[in-house]
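User: Fold this; tokens only.

Assistant: Input:
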Amino acid sequence: MSIIKGNQGGNMKKLLIVMFCLAFAAPSFALTGVSFGVKGGLLTNYDQPSLSTPSEDNSNMALGGLQVRFSSIPMFDVIVSGEYAWRSDSYSILGETVDFKTRDLLFSASAVYPFELPFATPYFGAGLATHNVGFDVDYPATWALADEAESISTTETRMGYHLMTGFEIGLPAFPLKLNAEYRLNWIDMPYETAKVNTFTAGLVFSLP
């Protein structure tokens, strides 16, 4: 049995349009001031009633993602990111094993203001995001009715916004930078707004 909650397709289209416009707002389409990054970290504080998580212990979720940063726009940079957070838990209920899976596929566009220091480049900013929040419950075959599958899957797409801060440190003789970032996210859920944290670290490769 698959349960799909209301998909906010219109909102997602609007966000994708905003992301597209921000990403290509530079005065020139030449690949200057562009960098690519890979990152990993944690999405925390996810065990909230507004997120309807099926597991009692999924406050922290592993996270991985990619980003593109555009630095040729005057006054601020634009960061477009795609990230995937997940967690799996297994519990014994009435002598049977039940698997709970939580996932969040999110895409974001952020405007950040960097300022140069001798040893690093800190930045701060804000942005919008779309969160594809999903939960899967896999239960024993003995629990299923004859005409039902042995799992329940729930997915919904929600809008979000965030504040962020971070810094980059260049590596001598390499076109690479170390990046660390914190993001405070608000997710617009049906009954109340959920607030979660993102902590990431990664590598950024800058084009010449």
